[in-house]
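The protein record quoted for completeness.
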Amino acid sequence: MEKICIFTDSASDITHELAEKWNIDVVPLRVTVDGRTMREYYDITPEKYWDILMKSQDFPQTAQVSIESFMEQFLRAKNTGCTHCVGILINGEGSGTFQTANIVRDMFYEEHGRDMVIELIDSRCYSYTYGSVAVLGAKMRAEGKSFREIVAEMRSRVKGMKAYVGIYSLRLLRKSGRVSGGAAFVGEALGLRPVAVVFDGAVDVVGKVRGDKAVVRKLVDLAVRDAVDREHQRAYVAYAAVPEEQIAKLEKELLAAGFAGVERCPLGVMVTTNTGPQALGVIFRGAPHE
């Protein structure tokens, strides 16, 4: 009989409540800011991290999941009697986490044999775009689906997951060098808000809107354009330190646009280190990439 372990990394932005409810293990990425190194998910909450980003003059440095964390994860699964293990991880083009997981899997097999099957999935995306797929896998496990069915569905589903993110301030982008000081100054003066797409291993700016109020309308328009079968899928509002009225408005307009339901998910360390804490996004299922 199969006993299946499902895990993800902390950049999936899965909440403690969901991880505990669905018995999903979480391995942490790390961030160093103001001389302190913290494990995402375990040592700091998204809300506390947003506050640090708002106040700190230091630019945070992030680090992938460590070799030790992956080995501990595999050993814990084996020692609890798991016969199979599947992990879905942060975009391999943007982090060394997926590559490290594969190296540690080979080390584990050499030391402990191949009695426990380990499947690793490169999500090619960020945040709850793949955190939601970890939850999907856990729900299938609870329904008694086989390991093969779970892995196949997770691999298929993540190919269509897509996110659009509106960025309300260019301060952190300027500090990181992703936007020049002059461009940031002009952008802020004109009230320009970049909107980026996260899909198939890439993050690209797809446009700019003028003023905070235009961000929600743009996110809804893009989600409606790209979502498949939206009357049968749930959309996710990915939020950071933006006004509650903006979050609630996005929820309301997504429901009005025909999505079957809407849930909130906080944006964690890995996304907000790049976007800044003033960001709001929508996650949904679109047409899969090849």
In short: The longest helix spans residues 97-112.
